[in-house]
């Protein structure tokens, strides 16, 4: 791959790779570290002259399912756009270069994702790939990245295969995986008196992985439980009536739900109407994310145990600064996708900065073990399996002021829900 910056100048970076610990040479970047993204934006705007870049741009090829799942991916795009603006306002990457993004829609199809990845590498000369939402698409792009020796930061796909059984040197993942989020939810599920469980999940890699891990981890903590029913609707095509009827017929004490988006809304509405949730506990992956919860308004479920993102209740300075910057820029509140997009682009920039190069191999080396500051706290990409330690918020759903939200939540640090490094290495193919 290209090696355009063999001897880069000192780095102007917003997010500090822990391994460097170097003094920042750009005043705006220093202000950003102490005051957060909102202050960084203000500092950049108050500068007398716009940033001047002395080196060639570094390019990121971004791929996602913008038409396939806009509820998540449009906020995600806005998140990385905000991060990109901040990065370039503070001097770009490698102390000399503008960071540019060339974005493509994969239409929710693995073949299309691989095709646009090839176009980005061949025609657009990108230096890094990033993005994807659906697990099977993330796996397809990860395979492409390995074959073409191209760094790939997978933002959202949750399948464990992307970092474990099908992991490769060039692929890194930001969000907590199905294993991690299942483990977070199992902590709560194991406390319930429920012994008979049913599951409902979309019938593709993400849903299959989530159910498999939930069952395994719950049985380890509670050998007395049994799983009495499984429903596997096609993603995006859930037939709510028959699904709810089949679950009710199994008479479970509790249900593990993995549906999301429009399928989730249909499942909630039909389940409430047929009394499926009455006197049953529901444990549900991703349901606390505002892009899925808020559109249901006062029809949102009450009392479900979920992973999610209670954006309006997180009061750390870094997160409050992110929310202020995001709402000022886009005139709307952030979603889970927003913070994923934001941290993804910051991680890409930090890796390039640490590498001091736009060349593939130094960027990959820089990503392994990279730690960045983020609105949810420090996040590290483990060298052992390339999984980031970003966590998730675990709590229960409720309706407040006519909209769905979360209550009684806690932040579950992803580092506490991963196997030891040695165990993770054994699950990966040999390089």
Features:
431 residues, 5-stranded parallel β-sheet, 14 strands, globular
TL;DR?
This protein has about 425 residues and is α/β, with parallel strands linked by helices. About 40% of the residues lie in helices and about 15% in strands.
Secondary structure topology:
Layout: H1 27-46, E1 58-64, H2 70-89, E2 99-105, H3 110-122, E3 128-131, H4 135-148, E4 152-154, E5 171-173, H5 178-189, E6 196-200, H6 205-221, E7 226-231, H7 240-249, E8 254-257, H8 261-273, E9 281-288, H9 290-293, E10 305-308, H10 317-330, H11 336-355, H12 360-367, E11 371-372, E12 379-380, E13 392-400, E14 403-412, H13 421-426
Parallel strand pairs: 1-2, 1-3, 3-4, 4-5, 6-7, 6-8, 8-9, 9-10
Antiparallel strand pairs: 10-13, 11-12, 13-14
How does the helix and strand content classify structurally? Answer: alpha/beta
Give the strand tally.
14
Rounded mean pLDDT score: 90
Gyration radius, rounded = 21 Å
- Which consecutive residue ranges, at least 5 long each, have pLDDT under 50? 1-48
SSE pattern, N- to C-terminal: HEHEHEHEEHEHEHEHEHEHHHEEEEH
- Main sheet: strands, sense, barrel: 7 strands, mixed
Provide the β-strand percentage band: 15-25%
**What spatial order of strands do you see in the largest sheet?**
7-6-8-9-10-13-14
Q: How many angstroms does the end-to-end distance come to? A: 19 Å
Portion of residues in helices? 25-40%
User: Looking at the structure, what is the overall shape?
Assistant: globular
Q: How many helical stretches?
A: 13
